[in-house]
UniProtKB/TrEMBL annotation:
Keywords: Membrane, Signal, Transmembrane, Transmembrane helix. This is Uncharacterized protein. It comes from the Bacteria. Residues 349-359 have a biased composition (Basic and acidic residues). Residues 338-363 are annotated as: Disordered. Residues 1-23 form the signal peptide. The chain crosses the membrane at residues 369-386.
Length: 392
């Protein structure tokens, strides 16, 4: 069967499917001894380094204290239940502590937020720098509201009671201040910045009680799906084919099952550099269940690159732009060709009239060979894509 080359093509078109409740994409924390690392909550959003002279510092799991979907922050970013956060105290002697968060690169000016919790008998002053190096203004922080997470239902296990106190935001002083009416649980304020931020600094001052504030950071994220869709590509020649004409193109079903593990999509930033995931590795989507999936992508401008070898050439540009917005994704559209190996010829049965003979004795060379190859491929179940093939 060396006289026929059977090829098949598959296209990948990017579509956007928002993950459930934005998948509650919260940053995770690791580290110790006053130096901590924040992982990216979504591909395309920067990680950060946090330094503090406060103590103690904890990184709870979010199992006992969380912001449910009934809270303002949870309604925007999803529940923080079982999502990590960081808790920071004052310095020795209950003196004010200073905590600075430096992002790996300036943040986008929208689609993310942070919350400061347990602000009851204490106060946090917020400062920081913009992407241009200037000082942050109160408007840049985008204060939204204050609430008490213990008012939500179901009530977190860490709530001592259905506390109602809420901290007060003073934009002139850029401070979030507790009511100082007792050491409670759940008093929280939240922010959605409107500027590109390079760093945030929290100066934490205690009035009484057990001093510690909580810091959550979350971002919008979407699942970007590029499904593999069968297409029919017609080679030059008679588009209808003619079984009686050996020179006419014949329909051949392509066997592209082995594309999985051989073809992947890499997510690049707008400048063409790899986007790094929360594991510190470039973000790559493998073929799974008929589609390539990037599960957590922050809204923004990206590029997508097909990573393949000579067995699956890309028909067209291998790198194309991808625009992810709050409700859609535009581009890319790839065409990937796969060249299947011809199936091995089945041994001829002694009795071709037998009812058990599933492979009719058709020629494998000469007139009609193209139809025989098509029949074998169809029997083998290769139906990922269809392309017309011409005899060489």
């Amino acid at each position: 069967m060396t006289g026929v080359v059977a090829t098949a093509a598959a296209t990948a078109a990017a579509v956007l499917v928002p993950s459930a409740a934005f998948a509650a994409e919260y940053a995770a924390w690791s580290g110790g001894s006053g130096s901590f690392q924040m992982s990216s909550p979504a591909a395309g959003f920067p990680g950060a380094d946090l330094t503090t002279d406060g103590a103690p510092v904890t990184t709870p799991s979010g199992k006992s204290i969380w912001m449910g979907e009934g809270t303002p922050f949870g309604a925007e970013f999803g529940s923080s239940r079982d999502q990590g956060y960081i808790g920071i105290g004052t310095t020795g002697g209950n003196l004010p502590s200073t905590t600075t968060v430096v992002f790996d690169s300036p943040t986008p000016p929208s689609d993310w937020g942070f919350a400061l919790g347990d602000i009851d008998v204490d106060m946090v002053r917020i400062s920081g720098t913009t992407a241009g190096g200037g000082a942050l203004a109160a408007a840049d922080l985008g204060y939204q509201s204050s609430f008490n997470l213990c008012q939500d239902s179901p009530r977190p296990a860490g709530c001592k009671s259905a506390a109602t106190d809420q901290p007060v935001w003073d934009p002139a002083a850029m401070t979030l201040t507790g009511t100082n009416s007792g050491d409670t649980v759940g008093a929280t304020g939240w922010f959605q910045p409107t500027a590109s931020i390079a760093s945030l600094t929290f100066t934490f001052t205690d009035f009484s009680g057990i001093p510690m504030f909580q810091f959550w950071l979350a971002a919008h994220a979407y699942e970007v799906v590029a499904p593999v869709t069968p297409v029919l590509i017609t080679a030059p020649g008679d588009p209808g084919g003619d079984p009686g004409d050996p020179s006419a193109p014949a329909d051949v079903l392509g066997r592209c099952d082995d594309m999985a593990g051989e073809v992947s999509l890499a997510l690049l930033d707008a400048g063409g550099d790899p986007v790094i995931g929360d594991d510190g590795e470039p973000v790559v989507a493998a073929l799974d269940d008929g589609a390539f999936r990037f599960p957590q992508v922050f809204p923004g401008s990206y590029q997508v690159q097909v990573v393949t070898d000579e067995h699956y050439p890309v028909d067209g540009p291998a790198v194309q732009p991808l625009e992810v917005t709050d409700d859609a994704a535009e581009g890319p559209s790839f065409s990937i060709e796969c060249t299947p190996e011809p199936p091995a010829a089945s041994p001829a049965a002694d009795d071709h009239d037998s009812a058990d003979d599933t492979h009719p004795a058709l020629p494998t060379t000469g007139p009609g060979a193209g139809l025989w190859i098509a029949a074998l491929l169809a029997i083998a179940g290769g139906a990922m894509a269809i392309r017309r093939a011409r005899r060489l």
